[in-house]
Amino acid sequence: MVLVDQTHSPQPKSSFDLSVYLAERNAEVGMALDSAVPVVTDLEKIYEAMRYSLLAGGKRLRPILCLATCELVGGTVEMAMPTACALEMIHRKSLIHNDLTGMDHDDYQRGQLTNHKVYSEAIAILTGDGLLAYAFELIAAKTQNVPPQQVLQVIAHLGRAAGAAGLVGGQVVDLDSEGVSEVSEETLTFIHTHKTGALIEASVVCGAMLAGATPSDVLRLSRYGQNIGLAFQIVDDILDITATQEELGKTAGKDVQAVKVTYPSWWGIEESERRARQLVEAAKVELATFGEKAEPLIEIADFIISRTPDGVTTPSKAPEVADLSNLS
Prior knowledge:
328 residues, mainly alpha, two-stranded antiparallel ribbon, 2 strands, 64% helix
């Protein structure tokens, strides 16, 4: 678990409205994704399958983190948008493959039938492959006004996060741990810092790299990303136990059915919630040096742990972004 000194002064209230920020950024990313993956004549099936999962709603947390971090260190939304879209493509690829019968075997994702239930297992596998490959093509071909060396750094960092050293490796250890009665806390943390946390951390770091952040700032933002990534997964584990399928938009109780070790099974729900809050506080400490400019990232960190079993956030936010049950 990535933690640092949590001693910090409380931040004064501001006029920043997270609900408006998320809604605006979500809409921008949605339009960019829609434009990036049009249906291609003679290949309608695969492009329709890619669009089916890619445009299936959700809060698009990872691309928003990329955009926010790029702006934080002096970049623009425009220079980060191809990478932001690539992050969402990789995330959706991971969901498509994770839902397959040989993996977590789920028939629903975000309240709709999973890709393989609509297009077949074979097409779902190829859909994920297509999204993964196109993600890197998009960064290389469409990133503008960024020095080539910084684009290469982003591609390398994202490739590591998406591959065997990151998301894929975490998934492998997760599958190997199913039904095993003596999974250690260290193994559990390894699974989630790789399977879930690696792509969230990359979302933050890649935005910073695009804007030319200093190595020290990249390190701070990496720690921020690692902490919120693990906090996100702890809350996910809690909701798998406490929420319904309607609230989650996917099958509830899958972890128990698969006999997976989770944070609630290790610590209990109350302690898991405390640990998630602790991680978020540690993440926010890493942003202190950026001052008021870090407010979007601070608010997003709090947003991640505000999910509750009834699918609403604890802060009073606008209803159109208050339902966090599909935040994944």
